[in-house]
## 1
Amino acid sequence: MAHTKSALKRIRQDKKRNLRNQSVKSTVRTATRAFREALEEGDAAKAQTSLRAASKTLCKASTKGVLRKQTAARRISRLAKAAHKSLAAAK
């Protein structure tokens, strides 16, 4: 166990940040899952709105430092690609 005041403070900060990061990652996973489910249903309008929501949550996670910038960009790109592919196949 840490003895110095600075080490104890660092532990407190890490716990707080860890909880926040878990929450944000959970939100990202939920938004992504909602988009995937909308794609599977074949509902184009719902897929578009959920894609927008998922992209927004990924960008926000990137801005907050929970995800790296490139990781968020890659995931958004893959979601958009899946949406485009699915909607093109539906036509």
## 2
Amino acid sequence: MRVPMVCVDPRLRQFASAFADAFSRPQFRHFVTVLVALLLCRGPRTLTGLLRTVQGGGRLASLSRFLSEAPWEATALAAAWRRRFDHQLTPHVARLHAEQRAARPKRRGRPTASIVTGYLIGDDSTCHKRRGRKMAGLGRHSSTTERRAVVGHNLVQALSVAAGRRCPLMPQLDRQKASCDAAKQPLHSNVDLMEAPIRNVVPLSDTCTHVLLDAWYGAKRIWKAARDRGFTITTGLRANRAIRVAETEADGGWRWGDRASSAAGLSAADDQAVVWPHQEGAGRTVWVHTVTAIVRNRSRAQVLIVRNTLDGPANEVRFWATSDVRATVAAAITHLAARWDIEALFADTKDLLGLDHYQMITTTAIVRFWTLALAAYVYLDEERARLRQERQRHVTIGDAQREVQCVHWAHLITWMQRQFRAGETTATLFRQLAA
């Protein structure tokens, strides 16, 4: 059943109006149509599926042109929601600073400065396209869910997280050499694409930025880009990554070794039990061993060896390196746990908003569809924060979407009731709302 545009909730209208400057008037109508349909659609988020969700959304051809040819900039849309995010988070950051200052003990000397950490998290995700032979930008990319290389598009994404809120940055398409040569465009690796937001992002005011990446993005120039900006950085380590560690604390001698051999030589007494945080309450216990070392091709870092169990197999051991050599083990684990937000972003946008449901041909249309799906995610994150404040409990993005859908179905029932009172027949409403 289609939902008439007159039934759109006022909060969603207010959110959409914040981006009106990025579009012309006809383009803005398409933007609202796609935004509402992405939030309410119960089936595949193809263009046909989106038009079957909203009544009065226009024709398929015009919506297709809006995504592939219309003169609007996806970067302007992403910049607009980032400014909105910064404006909303500024008072929350100030409140966190005030709480830290009020909680610190009163003693003589210079007081400890309050610190609010904002995370810049990056990763990539493959959108598998089984029948998309005519789509531009296709390549073979490794898929975690399929556990093999698949044909599709690789989305490189950065996510800003602060004070419990999430803000995705501009999505980027990782194109392989054959695809770039066919389109006569320069080749940019996924490391190039990840380095760009690190160098260009504007940090949230009064926060310290911490970059979180997996082992794939642990390149030397990624670390250099973070250090040049004054950011701390934590990345995964391959098991065979060589590090230079002290032989003993007394003589200060050094030796080179790899992470796998170091982990194999540890005993239970070498590990420290730490709670891995969880959003919904009590977390799980992991075992951590830390050592300050020089990582080859990087710099001095604190290396963490993380085990789920003391007697687990070697392939379950995880290795991380952080430039914050003064961080406690608990603080370092808190940083590592925050990296899961990017995985949750990919899961939520694919399962709830159809990030990988597109059937567009051009890369411009594909990146624009990703951008519109992330705009819908930004709205759901705002609703999640509002519901969490009202209910005083943990709220997921899925909970926020279900609440949005319930509100719109209630508006639809109220609208139908008014139409019947005005003399409309069942057949007339059926022709308007039938998908």
